[in-house]
Amino acid sequence: MIGAAVVGCGRWGTNYVRALGQVPGIELRACCDPLESRLAGAGRLAPSARLTPSYEALLAAGDIAAIVVASPATLHFQQAFAALQAGKHVLVEKPLTLSVAEADALVELARRQGLVLMVGHTMVYNEGVRCLREAIRSPEFGTIYYLHSVRTNLGPIREDVSAVWDLAPHDLSIFAYLLDAWPERVSAVGADVLRQGREDVAFITLSYPGGVVGHVTVSWLDPSKNRQVVVVGSRRRALFDDLNNAEQVRLFDKGIALDNSFQTFGEFHYLVRDGDIHSPKIEAREPLLTQCQHFFQCVRDGTEPITGPEHGRQMVRALAAVTRSLRAGGAPVDLASSS
Prior knowledge:
- The protein is an alpha/beta fold.
- It is built from 9 helices and 15 strands.
- The protein has 2 domains: 2-120 and 288-307, NAD(P)-binding Rossmann-like Domain (Rossmann fold, 3-Layer(aba) Sandwich); 124-284 and 318-337, Dihydrodipicolinate Reductase, domain 2, CATH 3.30.360.
- It is 32% helix and 29% strand.
């Protein structure tokens, strides 16, 4: 039995408390939060867990082998670093850190300590996203031209990070999972509409290897909730809609490609396909629970998680580059120069 603890028992942290109670071979032994009201809420979900406001006491506990860090993003580095130093495996919510230097330090410490460090990019563990990955990698899909996503809602407004660092990791992690690649260059424009000192809406363009283009729209201010990813290929188009439980993934047998069989310029033309729409059956499985199961399997086996330290570091590099572009009025930023 692996002893686990959760630090940060707010809205998302309580989801971890609930999910960990469903992972076989795991015992949630402690919950930590400075607010008594949040600890009380966690205690109702996990009656047998110790409740403590002291993170230091959590780190000193000999019956805890792994810690889930679900605190505000500004505390991720400090708390994850302390947990690794204390010899604990760590699953930290996204983003891993708020700077590339801090991400580098965590990655190096985890490797030096021989501990599992994983980032909670939950969308990678979504069965619909996994179905989408399989679909676009089939020969029938053709060449991938571009991807675009929309992640909008009316709130909730975060106080620790911008909409970019809050929402964009979901879509950037999906794109990385689908393409097995991170962007080489980014550009972004956004606005601080609410005058909180951080962007609450942003439009991000990404350049991937092989000429694939990506675009991400994020907003806390849109009256419509939207969670969609579209992949366009030469032979098919795929739509992932996280809010459509009946048809989460739809594949459109339509596309456009150059007909290379022409002999003269006068015969030059494009081939347009327009056919059926297919909705694959997708197993209903909670992504957060799948993510937690994967983390503890890696703890048992000593294997690298799918969203392990390098995945987390690349995400921080991408978000740092997006931030630099925002500050430069949308000027392109190469990932190699982000910091």
